Amino acid sequence: MNYRVCFVCTGNICRSPMAEAVFRARVAEAGLAALVEVDSAGTGDWHVGEGADPRTVSVLEENGYSVEHTARMFERSWFSRLDLVIALDAGHLRALRRLAPTDEDAQKIRLLRAYAPAADGDLDVPDPYYGGRDGFEECLRMVEEASVGLLAAVRADMEGRVT
């Protein structure tokens, strides 16, 4: 059975598709693409059906990541099929915890930057939507940094299930 991870931000056009693309690349580099499914969604429906923000796509492509994305909204029923739900900031964490049907489902929700060793106590990935390109580049840096620790945690969780 595959391990399933879903990244969640507000509208699913900036941070979560970026995290999805970066983590999917890390999973592939680790040779786990056949075992780990990576997805993303938003807490709201503002951008459902749209592609990723052009600035997200540009920053990702310039850094060697590919992105094919259609925005969608996270649904409560998804908890039963997911192993980890990764929130991009504390607001998403709270919204997802309110949606979680059970305590067990709520335990699946984590902040992405909790996996970043250099995070300085502020575990939010700031929303770059209303700013300039530098915000998207900073978002990518934070996502890349946290993806290393997230991959290690997923790997450990997968190994723990096998034994």
3D structure, described in words:
Keywords: Hydrolase, Protein phosphatase. InterPro entries: LMW_PTPase, Ptyr_pPase, Ptyr_pPase_sf, Tyr_phospatase_low_mol_wt. The chain has helices spanning 15-29, 54-62, 90-99, 103-106, 133-162; strands at residues 3-9, 36-42, 84-87, 109-111. 42% of the residues lie in helices and 13% in strands. The chain starts with a strand and ends with a helix. The protein has five helices and four strands. Strands 2-1-3-4 form a four-stranded parallel β-sheet. Strand 1 (3-9), helix 1 and strand 2 (36-42) form a beta-alpha-beta unit. With 163 residues, it is an alpha/beta fold. Helix 1 (15-29) crosses helix 5 (133-162) and helix 2 (54-62) packs across helix 5 (133-162). It has a single domain (3-162), classed as Rossmann fold (3-Layer(aba) Sandwich), CATH 3.40.50.2300. The radius of gyration is 15 Å and the shape is globular.
Notable traits:
single chain; 5 helices; alpha/beta; Ptyr_pPase_sf; 4-stranded parallel beta sheet; 163 residues
CATH top level label: Alpha Beta
User: How much helical structure, as a percent, in the residues?
Assistant: 40-55%
Q: Which overall shape is indicated by the principal axes computed on the Cα atoms?
A: globular
CATH architecture: 3-Layer(aba) Sandwich
How would you characterize the largest beta sheet?
4 strands, parallel
Task: Name the CATH superfamily classification.
Answer: Response regulator
Low confidence ranges: none
**Strand elements, count:** 4
Radius of gyration: 15 Å
Q: What name does the CATH topology carry?
A: Rossmann fold
Integer average pLDDT = 96
